[in-house]
Amino acid sequence: MPEIRLLTAEKTRSRLPIQHQSYIKQLYQQAVDDVKDWEKSLQGKDNVSSVIRREYLSQMRKDLNEEMEKIGSDVESTIKSNISATATAVVKDANSVLNGLGVSVKGAYSFVPSDVVQAITTGQVYDTSWTLSKAIWAHTKKSQQDIYDIIAKGVAENKSSYEIAKQLEIYVNPSALKPWDWGKLYPGSSKVVDYNAQRLARTLVSHAYQQSFVRTTKDNPFFLGYRWLTSGHNVCPICIGYAEDIHDNSLPAGVFPKDELPIDHPNGRCTFSVYMEDSTDQIVDSLVAWAHGEDSPELDKFAESLYPKEFGMVKEQVKLSTATKNNIDVLDLPEVTISQASEDWFEYENANLMSEYIRNGIMPNTDINGGIVGTKQQNLLKSEALILQEHASNTITNYKTVYRGMVLQSEESIADFARNSIYDIETLTATSTSKNVAMIYTNTENYGGGIPVLLEIENPKGIRGFDRDGVEVVLPKGSSYRVSQSFYDEDGLIHIRLYAGKNLG
Q1: CA distances from 458 to 300, 420, 505 (A)
Q2: What proportions of the chain, in percent to the nearest 5, are helix, strand and coil?
Q3: Of 13, 84, 237, 407, which has the fewest Cβ atoms less than 10 A away?
Q4: Residues β-bridged to residue 256
C-alpha cells in the first residue's frame, strides 16, 4: 500500500537541533569569557582582605547570574523559533502532498505553525501545568544555585577567589572535561551545564514535527493511520514496540489509528508516515467526483480543515482548485460557466453580492433591491464569484490602462488615495477600457450627490483581470496599486492614477 512521508520536514527536524546545539554552546561561551576576565583580574590578589574578597565573589556571582538569565531568554526564543520553523516545513511538505493529489490552494494550513507554537510552549499538548517559560526558568535557577554552591564551597574551604573562578569556568563551559569526582565535589550540580537546554530543544522540535504532521493530515479521509518509523541505532524498546506491534486490528503492524498516536519520548528521533489503502489514482478519481458535485461529508470536512473557519466557503475554493488541477474543464462545474457568470455580473448587477461574499465569506440575505436571495441564487452567485476571481487572478489582458468611475460619499474616503500610498482592490471590481464609459459612473445625480472620482489604472505589462467583452475588465480581489498622481480638473472631477509598480497589480 502507498505511504507518504514528509521528507523535507524530517530533514528540518533533524537539522535544527544540531544547529541549536552549537548555538547554545556559543551562548555559554560568553559566560566562560566573563569568568576568564575575572580570573585575569584576580591573579596575584590572593592576599586581599576578606571584605574585598567577598565583594569580588559577590560581583562575580551577580555577573554569572545575569548571564544565566540572558542564556535562558535566548534559549527560549530560539526554541520557539525552531518549533515554528519545523511546523512551517511540515506545512510546506503537506501542501506539496495536496498538490500532488490535485488540490492546489494557497495558504492551506498556514495557521498550523502559530497553533503548534502555542500548544507546545503552553503545555496544551501535554495536558499539564508545564510551560516552556517555567522549564527555562527552572533550568536558570538550577544553574544559579550551582554557581552559589561552588562559590560557597570554595569559601568554606578557604580557596582563593582565583581558584573559585577556575572552578566556575569549568562549570559554565559545556565543552570542558570535568574531573571524575565532580559529583562528589559538588553534589547535585549539573555535570553538563547545557544538557537540560539541549534536551529541551531536541524534544520540543521533535514534538513540533509530530504535532504539525498530525494537524495537516488527520482530517484527510484517504489517510487511515500513522506508521511509526524508528530512526538510527540503539532504538529504545518502547519505540521498537511502537514500530512492530499491532495497535489496531484493522491496520497493519506498526500503524496507529490517527487519533491514538502517542507523543514521542524526550530526545526522541522517530518519524512517521501516512498509511493509506487507496492508490493516488483512486484518490484523484474521488476528488474529481466530489468536485463535480458528488456528496462526501468527509471531503467537505477535509476542505474546511485547510483554513481557519473565518476564511469562509473553503469547500467551493477547494473544489475549483481540484477541478483545475486535475484538468477538469472549469466550465463543467454545476450550473455555471464563465460566460454565464460574466453575463449575470453585468445584467442583474450582482457585483454587490459577489463582493460581500468574497470579502466576508458570508452571502447577504437580500439583493441590492431588497429582494430575498434564495439558496439556489446564493449557490449560483458563489460559484460565479469564485470563477470570476479564479480567471481574473490568473489572466493578463492586453490592456495597459483601464478606468473606473465612482462617487465617494465623504471627504474621508479621499484619504485612501494619498500620493505614494498603496491602494488595495478589496473586492471583485468592474472597470472599463473606455474612459467615456467610466465617466458615466461619475454622475453624482445618480447617487444623490457626492464626490465624483475617475480612477486611471495602469500596468505597462498588462492589466491583470477578466476581459468580459472588450469593454469591461473585472479586476480580482487582492490586486494592489500605488497612487502616482491625483488632481482636480476644472469641472471638479478628481482624477486618481494608480500604477502597478514592483510586485503590485
Answers
A1: 40, 14, 9
A2: 50, 10, 35
A3: 237
A4: 226
Q: For residue 31, give the C-alpha cell.
A: 559566560
pLDDT for 43-88, tens place per residue?
Answer: 877 777 778 888 889 999 999 999 999 999 999 999 999 999 999 9
Could you give phi then psi for residue 472, rounded to 5 degrees?
-105, 130
Question: Residue 238: in which H helix or E strand, if any?
Answer: helix 237-244
Element holding 170 (H helix, E strand): helix 161-172
Q: CA quadruple 467, 469, 471, 475: dihedral positive or negative?
A: negative
Distance of alpha carbon 310 from alpha carbon 317, whole angstroms = 14
Residue 395: all three cell numbers together: 489572466
Beta bridge mates, 272: 228
Q: Are the CB atoms for 300 and 25 separated by under 8 Å?
A: no
Which of the 8 DSSP states describes residue 153? H
Q: How far apart are CA 298 and CA 300, in angstroms?
A: 5
Other beta carbons within 10 Å of 446: 10
Which superfamily does CATH assign the domain made up of 401-499 to?
Toxin ADP-ribosyltransferase; Chain A, domain 1 (3.90.176.10)
Give the C-alpha separation, 348 to 126, whole Å: 56
Do the Cβ atoms of 64 and 34 come closer than 8 Å? yes
The DSSP bridge partners found for residue 483 are: 498
Residues 306 and 241: beta-carbon distance below 8 Å: no
Query: Which of the pair, 445 or 79, is modelled with greater confidence?
Result: 79
Q: How much is the pTM?
A: 0.65
State the Cα–Cα distance between residues 267 and 491, nearest whole angstrom.
75
**Beta strand pairing call for 271-275 and 255-257:** unpaired
Of residues 109, 62, 81, 64, the one with CA closest to residue 19: 81
User: What sign does the CA torsion over 423, 425, 429, 430 have?
Assistant: positive
Intervals of CATH 3.90.176.10 along the chain: 401-499
Q: What pLDDT, on a 0 to 100 scale, did the predictor assign at position 355? A: 53
SS3 track for 336-391: CCHHHHHHHHHHCCCHHHHHHHHHHCCCCCECCCCCECCHHHHHHHHHHHHHHHHH
Residues 6 or more apart whose Cβ sits within 8 Å of residue 106 = none
Q: In sequence order, which ranges of 102-131 are alpha helices (DSSP H)?
A: 112-121
